[in-house]
Amino acid sequence: MSNEELWYTIFAKGHPALVKQHQRHLRMPSPPRCKLCLVPFAGVGGFIMGFRGKRPSNRNPRFCSACDHFIRQFPGGAEVELSLVFADVRGSTTLAERVSASEFSRMMHRFYAAATAQLVATDGFIIDVVGDEVVGVYPPGFSGPRHAALAIEAAQRLLALDSAEWADMPFGVGVHTGVVHIGTVSGAEEGIQDVRAIGDNVNVAARLSSQAGPGEALVSDAAWTAAGAPDDGLERRTLALKGRTEPISVLVLTSGYHRAAAPA
Question: Could you tell me the pTM of the whole model?
């Protein structure tokens, strides 16, 4: 099997050995976890797995040592249709200006923890934090065929956080489904490798989150159609996204909206 076939199997279909690891590891507490095999690094599960050699890699603690070795041994990736969720804090620059650096760091970490918990709860993969943004990717090989419905559910959960408790940190959410290239990327001098999703559809999801108002989620037609959901009479907008020639149609979710999860 070529590296491209291997990565396609992992993210588009679900590699049988990795799926079994996910099922086993998710029964053990607790986060944080390896980004690839989901082995726990904390709690009782982390203690037990540490004795079995499944510890955070010294080179890249986002992965366990075994998965870090795997992504270095099998570099590459594949094109896969998946769903993406971006959550972006509004006014973070102004916020950082009016509080101390330590207080801003504390506030952002509170947001990271709360948002990440919702992405994990909906089977999101490659949970990432980039500045004032949290990112979840939903590949079929990890999240199953309902990946778009799960991404929309994650958006609903995130909007449910946007209450009085989060008045000082309003945020918007973008949800999109499309083909991306997902696989390994290398850091400086090939020193650290990570797994990333790259491509136009990643940019679309990021742009949607940046255009969403506080307490809003903008869900692309592509994601809504992939989820097999009726539009429920939701507000529809046509947006011009920075850097793209074609406008995109979206449906708008707000914190008061709730839709039951799509059937399995």
Answer: 0.92
